[in-house]
Amino acid sequence: MTSFVGRRHELARARELLTTTRLLTLTGPGGVGKSRLALQLAEQSRRAFTDGVGLVELADLQQGDLVAQSVASVFGLRDETSRPVERLADYLRDKHVLLIMDNCEHLVEACAVLISKLLAAAPQVRVLATSRHVLGTEGEQVLRVPPLSLPADEDRQLGEQQVGTDAVTLFAERATAADSTFQVTEANRDAVIALCQRLEGMPLALELAAARLRAVDIEQVLARLDDALGLLTTGQRTVPPRQQTLEATVAWSYHLCSPGEQHLWNQLSIFSGGFTLDAAEHICRVPDDEQHGVFDLLSGLVDKSIVQRSHPTNDQPMRYTLPEVLRQFGHTQLAASGDENAVRSRHRDYFAELASRGEQDYCSSRDLDWFRQVHREHANLRAALDFSLTQPEQAPTTLTIAMQLRPFWLHSGYNHEGYRWLCTALEHATAATPLRARALSTASLLAALLSETDKAKYLLAESRQLTSQIRADEAAAEATLASALLAFADGDSDEALRLARLAAQRCRAAGIQGVATESLSAATVFALGIDDPTAGELAQELLSLTTSQEAHLLKALALWLVGLAHWRENNQQAAQEHLGQALELFTQSEQPLVIAHCLDGLAWSAASSGDYYRAARLMGAARTRWKRNHLSLAHAMTARFGADRQHFVRAALGDSAFNAAFDRGANSTLEEIINYALGKRAPESQQTAPSAASALLTTRETEIAEHVAHGLSNKEIASKLVISTRTVDTHVDHILHKLGVHSRTQIAMWISDHKGLS
């Protein structure tokens, strides 16, 4: 991101308002700098909010009913409830956070309703919104963002002074970025000031003008700009003057592009959340008489600062974006050209192909790449689904895309969104086809996982009725897995196990390997839950299957279940080995829900091995991860495994030591707890000098402090060390005094911090 320039007065005023109001809305025309001001304000205010700052970027979201989900995802909450607003409000209830909602203008009603509910439920939450229009919410404080400050005409003779105004400073910085030799000098100062005044200090307009210095000098930019603005603002008397200036500057930049670049700019406006070169080359077309291809034309738009590019990370391809104001301008041109439907159809087909790879890649070594690509293109997939819904003849395509994204919905925390898309598409695609039958069974499964039991049963019944009329083997097979989940929800675990095993057989026969693997994993979970003797055998069968598939995510699931089976069999070494391998694979796949499962499993195994401090700490870490997930059915399926473990560990440690260890785990970062769970050393910057304990405590005191941290009483420590209880009492008093603490809990926390207690 480019540097932030000026705005000292606006920042001071906004900081002041944030202390007295709970909703501050920054308003102003597009391109005036609302988003940049909000981000800078958030950065300066971060320390004032103990639970942090959450940024929600709404420009690429077109669905108002997904606003709550978008906010929730910023806080790590998965989309696993049919009541996302209530879930989000409950999470934020005791949080002290600043929530930034950027670009609310096209979703004003949805944003206003959500903000009102969050502010009512969470008294320590403050909201900073940016919008071209006020939100109209009770208690809203509005701060209009003006253009950047300008030098006055009468101040030109002051020489260097006016170079310090915000508009001139911004232009100078961006001009230097375009042409490294550029400087504001005595010779060009008047032209720079005149250009900034002509553009009325609008930041985006200044940046577009500065980009032209790659081709011409400042005097030529000013001359051409004067001609263009005089022509383009004629007849726009109903538009506010500053908005006329920005729109005219964008139009001027557009007309300075070659016809091929203009044509590409128009087409790029259909992307949401950015795009790759591959997507642009597959979707965009160049005119027949254009000598350059998409790559060359895109490079030209980047050089002109129309398109922005991000540097790739972690082997990801280069990604490009159009600033929102420029995207909207391009979309207007595309709609006027009559080409919009054709371009959107190619866009839909390109991303439908990405979705179609899901079922195969899910059960292969390509699974993580597919999940990551779908996550990056989530906004584009939403746009493709939305467009298909506007085309009645494309209703089956909508169903297909929504259904093929099933692994993404399930594993990436978007169950409710997937369920929503499927239900909406089913309303449009009403023909009695195998596709509709399969979509009904998939929707039923998602509804069951969302604990929408009645709706799940209704959808399942409709799917079964349809499969009784037409042949739809895939639908019938998946419906069996949905039936298993519903049987469990109704409290019949034996029937759930029988149906899950049957579903695995039917899905294999129908050729849907992903659902077959899920069915086998569900059967293993149900078997473990009722201590069925086949649980270990089922887990090993699942591990063999996923190993042969070379899938990362599904193999991690299998390793987790094998680990739990070993734990149940009291083979703790094997349990911890398999659970550790599962945790490493789940970490690669960035799956917080199943990471919580692994932490729970490692905690139960530690408890069975007598390492109660480790167990309590891992339990605390797991609880924190569970708070961000709300798949009540999935949690119910596994929670019974270790239902009594926490009480057991608490009794073994005592309340004080248990709470200390539990809280330490709960407050650990994900990286910290994974390193701890896997027995890895923390990075050197996070380690405490090994001499810290010995510098304060004697060898015997350190030994006793470690036993205290593990929850032993003074009497138990005396017995273990073969010394008198009175001697232990004296040592504990000395330890408390030397460490400057007042409780055994604080001793445990100090030892954990300074000795890497495990």
UniProtKB/TrEMBL annotation:
Record domain HTH luxR-type: where: 690-755
CDD domains linked to this entry: LuxR_C_like (cd06170)
Pfam families tied to this protein: AAA_22 (PF13401), GerE (PF00196)
Xref: PROSITE patterns: HTH_LUXR_1, HTH_LUXR_2
InterPro entries, alphabetized: AAA_22, P-loop_NTPase, Sig_transdc_resp-reg_C-effctor, TPR-like_helical_dom_sf, Tscrpt_reg_LuxR_C, WH-like_DNA-bd_sf
Origin superkingdom: Bacteria
Transmembrane segments: none
One Gene Ontology MF term: ATP hydrolysis activity
Protein name: AAA family ATPase
